[in-house]
Amino acid sequence: MLELRPNCECCDADLPPDSKDAFICTFECTFCRHCSKQVLQLICPNCSGNLVPRPIRPASALQRYPASTGRILKPSGCQNHTR
Which Pfam family is an annotated match for this chain, by its short name (predicted)? Predict the structure, then answer.
C-alpha cells in the first residue's frame, strides 16, 4: 500500500492524499507537479526512475488506511539536480 507522503521532497509543498499534483517513483519518492516537470523533467533525483502521477486513495479508504504524516525534504532542494 502506498504511503501517500504529505509533501514534495524538493520544495516542501503540501500534497494531501487527494492531490492531483503529486508525482511518485517506484520507491514512493514524492514531488509536486511543478518540481516533477519543470525541475526534474519527470526523473527521480534519488533513483533515476520515472515520475508518474500518484494515485488518489478514496476518502472512504483513508479512514482505515491513512496517509503518511512523515515529511521528507531534501536539504538542498532539487535545484542542483542533474540528469
Answer: DUF1272
pLDDT digits (tens, 9 = 90+) for 48-77: 999 999 999 999 999 999 999 999 998 777
- Residue 37 contacts residue 80 (beta carbons within 8 Å): no
CA distances in angstroms from 18 to 59, 65, 67, listed in the order given: 8, 13, 10
Q: What are the φ/ψ torsions at residue 31 (nearest 5 degrees)?
A: -140, 155
pLDDT-based confidence at residue 80 (cuts at 50, 70, 90)? low
Q: Is 62 exposed, middle or buried (0-12, 13-18, 19+ CB in 10 A)?
A: middle
